[in-house]
Specification:
Blueprint lengths: L10 E5 L20 E5 L4 E5 L10 E6 L2 E5 L5 E5 L4 E4 L5 H4 L4 H12 E8 L6 E7 L4 E6 L2 E4 L8
Antiparallel strand pairs: 1-2, 2-3, 4-5, 5-6, 6-7, 8-9, 9-10, 10-11
Length: 160
Amino acid sequence: MASSPFLSVPYALLPSIKQPDDIDDDDDDDPSTVNRSILNLSENKRYEWKNMLRGHVGAWCVGSSHGWIVLLDQNGIPILWHPSSSTSINLPPLPHAFLQPFPYSYFAEHLRKSFIAKAILMCSSSPSSYILAIIFGTDQKIAYCKSATWVKLPDEKQSY
């Protein structure tokens, strides 16, 4: 029985377990040329990937689902990336209203690696028909991007 794409187990993006062959390589400081591993829990396998993030310099992984990895590029702009096909889908930047009270430049430089707590992709059979949901900010708000438009869910009022 074929598994449903909606029930797939997410990947884990890990540091490589292999050591670089050439210790004096000048690329060791460039995160795009460092080897990485992908842990596929459904197969119980770890795949080594040389220069995995080449083309996505400074990218930061914030989630994965349905075979796609959700990255934030060095400017904090979300990218959907399918590692086995090397397909990338660029999403629009997070709206400035999501980042308040911080300017976008402060988010990209200082908050990018901690601002999004979780990113989940819900996609149909076509990668262009996606919905990316995120949990973001210090107060853990929820938003989603559909058809290249970001929407923040309204804050829930708590009653006691």
